[in-house]
Specification:
single chain, 411 residues, alpha/beta, Rossmann fold, 2 domains, seven-stranded parallel β-sheet, 14 strands, binds adenosine monophosphate
Amino acid sequence: MSPFASLGLAPALVRAASERGYALPTAIQAAAIPAALAGRDVLGSAQTGSGKTAAFALPILQQLESVARGAPRRTHALVLVPTRELAAQVGESIRGLAQHLAEPVKVAIVFGGVSINPQMMSLRGGAEVVVATPGRLLDLIDHNALSLAGVAMLVLDEADRLLDAGFADELARVLALLPRPRQNLLFSATFPSAVQALARGLLHDPIRVDVPPEPSTEPAVAQHAVEVDAARRTPLLRHMIEKGAWTRVLVFVATKYASEHVADKLHKSGIEAAAFHGDLSQGARTRALAGFKAGRLQVIVATDVAARGIDIAQLPVVVNYDLPRSAVDYVHRIGRTARAGASGLAVSFISADTEAHFRLIEKRQGRRVMRERIAGFEPAESIAPALAGGGVKGKRKSKKDKLREAAAREG
Ligand code: AMP
């Protein structure tokens, strides 16, 4: 029996998994699929790249096989995700895994930031599975474009990011609209108190599935912290890209402006780089991603929100040009590399202003990262070790720094 069949999955799903090149279930799949098929609620601690999408998609599809279908199609499963990229990626995965089922399954993918009308049209006649960001889902319900009255399975994917993205209120409104009893699956990379509270309120006697990022091995992501003056980060980045012969790099910055600015600077120095942020049209983002995947584009300079859901099998290098706001974001960022067992490199630029913030991130991770300097780019400003309060000597913390630190502690 194939390993996927022995989890209790139907032949059509086993076939779809094997066609996608899944030879063996990942750890989260091996643990979550039998539990979900048995109708249990699941609390999954899983990183990006763990195979969590199939861990919930396969049980959703299998359960659809055993419910009577009608016209219009009833929404049986609802998957909530934090971003449009993730919505598209998860929706496409479910469609792919559904392709050999006897009865076709309609999967609607809905997210904000684009016109609502095509999404309303796509929901005509109903959809068995809806993958949505919470805000747009509520808009569609307000337009009577869909009903949640028949939902029997709810998935919260990347619950920490859902709350981080400020979706707590929308989430509460959606939950209030869902019928009971129903099965709930919650996946999250990290478990700050807000996610724990959400899980407690939502899940009924859940099976806990904890998957360490890389079971029984050292973390596959090599983390480096390079000290550099803030003003010299772009030349250093260029130097490291050239020296390291990095062919595919995802660079994280804090703002849309920085995304444009850094990409432009790199581009002018002959490196194929593009900005990637929320103000770009979906078309521009899709083109950038396609170029990146095809190897025409060497560097993507992205904001956190835009970078969510960039699913690239071999992403060897991630650079934190600006540090992430919270430790949660840090985990997600470095999770972009080292997928599917490949090893990856995560480089963070640290300057006098950000040293204290990086220490908080290290503390949350429970892991110290060696500070390094690169010849020719040694910082002129001294990067003082953090004092007891996490401050940097001689520098008063700005309001923004304090917010950042609070966010890192939260994370
Ligand atoms: P996810 O964590 O769901 O984003 O999945 C990460 C990547 O692993 C995706 O590219 C999946 O297609 C792939 N994947 C999922 N399950 C398996 C598996 N059992 N074997 C190999 N690759 C997988």
